[in-house]
Specification:
By secondary structure, the chain is an alpha/beta fold. The chain is 50% helix and 18% strand. Helix 1 links the parallel strand 1 and strand 2. Helix 3 crosses helix 4 and helix 6 crosses helix 9. The longest helix has 33 residues. It is elongated and about 60 Å long. The chain starts with 9 loop residues before the first strand and ends with a helix.
Length: 248
Amino acid sequence: MFGVVVVFERLFVFTLGFHEDFAIRRLTSSAAGRSDAVLCATIRPVASATFRAYNNLVSFASVSGVRVLRLLDVDPGDPASAVASIMSEVLNVGGVKNVIFDVSGGSRGVTTPAVLAALLLPSLGYNVDIYVSSDGGDVWEARIPSSFLKLLTLNVSQQKLEMLRVLRENQGLTAEEIAAKLRLHEKTVKNKLAELSREDLIARRGRGGGVYLTQWGNLVAFIASAMAERVTGVEVAEAELEEGLVEA
């Protein structure tokens, strides 16, 4: 008899401390269900309050059919091993490619390696979002989208980077205008714009309106421009050095 391989659509990774409220908020706001799984990570040794928070989260998840895989304890004194342990757990979850890290709970001994693991996973083909939010009081949250993390691992195509750079200098351009500036086919530009929109890097204003960068798109464009300027500067310096050697 062959075992049944369970394939999940999303994996939620929570860094857990003494409270599970933030994890419950994330599962609720994300409409998590039977196709999703949860992995919790905390520091070693595991405190009794953390066990209580974990059990409360398991009880909540069971109502909506979300499967909680385990509570992983990592050594806060060995961050490299902690990163490897978290990544290994993610890699062992069959079929999942969309991973949501919420590092709003737990101590720095687990949140730091969790963030490092999240930064490394896109290079292995994962779509990763990172969330952090306040605990109690006025609730706020911040999100680092997978599109930005992919840039850090050089998984954004050169064409899309060029389009973002053009938009940073000329907000509100149409697809036709972008195609003309980059000397690309308009159909190619429209396809790339659709991808950038799905990645939350651009947005359109009004029906048939121009294209504008989101806050993350603007940051990616800034980095792309800085990288291009740095490469150009190095090439100029090398050319000047070579010219000087020839004259000498």
